Amino acid sequence: MPPLTVDHAEGLAAFRASVVAVADAVRDLPEPALFEPSRCAGWTRFDVVAHVLAGWEELLGGLARRTAGPATVDAASYWAAYAEAGSGDDPVLVLMDQRRWTDAHRRPSAAVARLLDVADRVLAASDALPDGHHGPDALG
Prior knowledge:
Blueprint: H1 8-26, H2 31-34, H3 45-63, H4 75-85, H5 91-103, H6 108-127
Helix pairs in contact: 1-6, 3-5, 3-6
């Protein structure tokens, strides 16, 4: 398997661009628009906001932690481990799990405001990120 490493500056630029793009896409959406379907089958835009928010909050922990070496999993194998432990391949259970997570937010606008706050913190943490290996050493 080829190394799972990218140039620090290149990876950071791509990461920052993706965070900014997501934040910009939802920043001014009115609440009713967040209940419209997203491009993810069965998910509203609100579901996507809640999902990305959870991921970015988890990511903050990884940005703060150095590891001894390069990644040992890629995106596909990382998420496969969660599928085995969670809802697996049942799309209805996956949708219901996401719906419960989304419903934990009192209003769509509150989830967007929190997403924008976390985006700012993720960007600030990435600005201070030294070159090297970061993230959890193992799943779990």
